[in-house]
Amino acid sequence: GGVGTTTSAYVAPKTVWLLAMKAKGLEIAGTFSRRGGVIHMELSLTNKAMSVMTDFAIQFNRNSFGLAPAGPLQVLTPLSPNQTTEVSLPLSTVGPVMKMEPLNNLQVAVKNNIDVFYFSCLYPISILFVEDGKMERQVFLATWKDIPNENEAQFHIKDCHLNSDAASSKLQSSNIFTIAKRTVDNQDMLYQSIKLTNGIWVLAELRLQAGNSNYTVSGVLERESYIALSYMELALR
Amino acid sequence: ELDDGLDEAFSRLAESRTNP
After folding, report:
1. Of A49, A60, A75, A192, which has the most beta carbons under 10 Å away?
2. Is there a contact between A41 and A89 (Cβ–Cβ < 8 Å)?
3. pLDDT tens for residues B1-20?
């Protein structure tokens, strides 16, 4: 987390997605971010081969949320042996859709002058949380009431020491919006909404007890809810 | 904040979730 009001959405450290030994010397590490309402795939390309690499291009397979490169992979100069270059690739969500297992799985093809290579990676569902995800209070109440009990998923977050206001503010930096807060029997109940890029809404209740560092998160609506909610733990930390 | 009945509705929701 950051200091004061300068908190921003959590971005995971890069992990290796493509091993050099499986890609004729090309190693790719990456992560995902959402900045200014734009999703980015942040890539480090390393040339571990003996010869120069050129002519890079990238393509995604169809995926659950229609993620697609919004432009070409910009590797402006040839990549010399032992050289690493950082590339930030903006993504759109208007690509072809196909439900993947798991839902946030992304299959990627990268080519260079040597060959075409394939890898898959998992993106955090939070990159799909849009900035206008604060649901009208009236709509929230009506929607919550209409949802059958069996659509509710619940999980627990242990050892989190934020109070409800700090949690609310931290979650808002990840586009998880608090619509109402109530205190009942010494428990703070935060009612929250999330909107995904494909228009699906997730409604959540975050329950915190004063002096207890364990939170309970309950969420409702479609299957995306569960992975959306599991992100809350990362966002809070 | 305007008293549009929603404040009360959220209180009832929280109450019903805590003491179903």
Report:
1. A192
2. yes
3. 555 789 999 999 999 988 87
Question: H or E element: which one contains B12?
Answer: helix B6-18
3-state SS record for A16-80: EEECHHHCCCEEEEEEEEEECCEEEEEEEEEECCCCCECCCEEEECCECCCCEECCCCCCCCCEC
CB A79 within 8 A of CB A35: no
In this complex, the residue of B6, B11, B15 whose CB is nearest that of residue A138 is B6
Which of A135, A139, A141 best probes binding to B when mutated, by most B CB atoms within 10 angstroms?
A: A141
- Measured CA to CA, the distance from residue A28 to residue A117 in angstroms comes to 10
Chain B nearest-CA distance from A159, in A, is: 21
What integer pLDDT is reported at residue B5 of this predicted model? 85
Q: Would you call A142 helix, strand, or coil by DSSP?
A: helix
Query: At residue A231, does pLDDT exceed 70?
Result: no
Separation between Cα atoms, residue A131 and residue A176, nearest integer Å: 9
Radius of gyration of chain B (CA): 9
**Long-range contacts of the stretch A30-36 (C-beta < 8 A, 24+):** A30/A121, A32/A123, A32/A124, A32/A127, A33/A9, A33/A127, A34/A9, A34/A126, A34/A127, A34/A129, A34/A175
Predicted local distance difference test score (pLDDT) of residue A148: 78
- A185–B18: do the CB atoms touch at under 8 Å? yes
Q: What is the DSSP letter of A3?
A: S
Report the pLDDT averaged over residues A144-157. 81
Average pLDDT on A37-47 reads 97
